[in-house]
Amino acid sequence: MTDNTPVDATITIRIIKNFEYRTVKNVVLHNIKLDTMTVGELKKIIIEKINVTPAFKPFRNVDYGILNNSQNLIINLENDDWILNDGNASLASCNIENETEFSFFNREAYEIYKSHPDVMKWE
Predict the structure, then answer these.
(1) For residue 109, what is the domain's CATH number?
(2) Over the stretch 72-116, which tens digit does the pLDDT of each residue have?
(3) CB contact at 8 A, 91 and 42
(4) How many domains is the chain partitioned into structurally?
(5) Strand, coil or helix: what is 107?
(6) Which of 67, 92, 98, 123 lies deepest, with the highest CB count within 10 Å?
(7) Could you report the per-residue pLDDT of 24-46, keeping only the tens digit for each?
(8) Is residue 52 domain-resident?
């Protein structure tokens, strides 16, 4: 993060309920403190949004836990290094900047989809 990067950021989270059906809904979070907020705290905020926002009611039956920093439209299958595993790391230390986009999903569903990414159940 450079000195001119804002500390308060706006980030977009793609909540992925289902990979095969491409069931995705975005949530935009404002005023995220990149220098003090940890990956674990961000996950808690996202889960809270899912649990209290009426539009996310169909998304509540998934055990989310993986946060992935990817520029791919839905998910980057080639590089698991983008997965943010360290819940204690600050967002700034993970090179997160203003207007970063993440995917948030279930790890088991991701591994199944990763083994057969060409399976599309809605086509």
Answers:
(1) 3.10.20.90
(2) 556 666 667 678 888 899 999 888 889 988 889 998 998 888 888
(3) yes
(4) 1
(5) helix
(6) 67
(7) 999 999 999 999 999 999 999 99
(8) yes
The reported pTM is 0.82
The continuous run of DSSP H or E covering 41 comes out as helix 39-52
Q: What is the token pair recorded at 8?
A: 């308060």
Q: Is residue 3 part of a domain?
A: no
Residues spanned by the domain of 13: 8-115
**Residue 11 and residue 100: Cα distance in Å, rounded?**
5
What are the two backbone dihedrals, phi and then psi, of residue 40, each rounded to the nearest 5 degrees?
-60, -40
Per the listing, tokens 């998304």 go with 59
Instruction: Report yes or no on 39 lying in a domain.
Output: yes
- Is residue 41 one of the residues assigned to a domain? yes
